[in-house]
Automatic annotation (TrEMBL):
Protein name: Sodium:proton antiporter
GO MF annotation terms: sodium:proton antiporter activity
Region described as Disordered: 109-149
Family to which the UniProt record says this protein belongs: Belongs to the CPA3 antiporters (TC 2.A.63) subunit G family.
Superkingdom, taxonomy of origin: Bacteria
NCBIfam families: CPA3_mnhG_phaG, PRK12674.1-2
Record keyword Transmembrane helix present: yes
Length: 149
């Protein structure tokens, strides 16, 4: 790229990336609950970092820009995984404002911390319900077999 075009593109990318990062930080402080804060912590921050890295890559030697690409890929891979793990932990520990949720798809899928012991092993709240479920599954398997002749 020519000098002036590269300077303008670098400036736009870096300022735009910085603006995304500032807006993400503002959302992190402003939003009321964990899922909303996770959105603010991951999406704008990732876009902002990628824009800053792209602006830096325009001004560096191409052989060094490959390191910036690796940093961007690492951010793209780790941010969603981290947000998902934090969200699950918040849901499991009850640190979630359920009045703000439109739908709770994990309500039946995760054990609560009240159902675990000190080692983290899950213990069902009603052992009779678990035994009945196992008996029903065994009866279903037995009904699939042909009766003896």
């Amino acid at each position: 790229m020519s000098g002036l075009v590269a300077d303008v593109a670098t400036s736009v990318l870096m300022l735009g990336g910085a603006a995304f990062c500032v807006l993400g930080a503002w959302g992190l402080l402003r939003f009321p609950d964990v899922p909303a804060r996770l959105q603010a912590a991951t999406k704008p921050q990732t876009i902002g970092l990628l824009a800053i890295l792209a602006g830096a890559a325009l001004r560096t030697d191409p052989r060094y820009a490959s390191g910036l690409v690796l940093v961007g890929l690492f951010q793209l891979v780790t941010a969603p995984v981290l947000a998902q793990r934090i969200s699950r932990a918040a849901h499991r520990t009850g640190y979630l404002r359920r009045d703000l949720l439109l739908a709770d798809e994990l309500a039946d899928g995760l054990p609560n911390t009240a159902d675990t012991d000190e080692t983290g092993d899950v213990h069902p709240a009603d052992p009779a319900a678990t035994d009945a479920g196992e008996d029903a599954a065994a009866d279903a398997d037995a009904s699939d077999e042909e009766p003896p002749h």
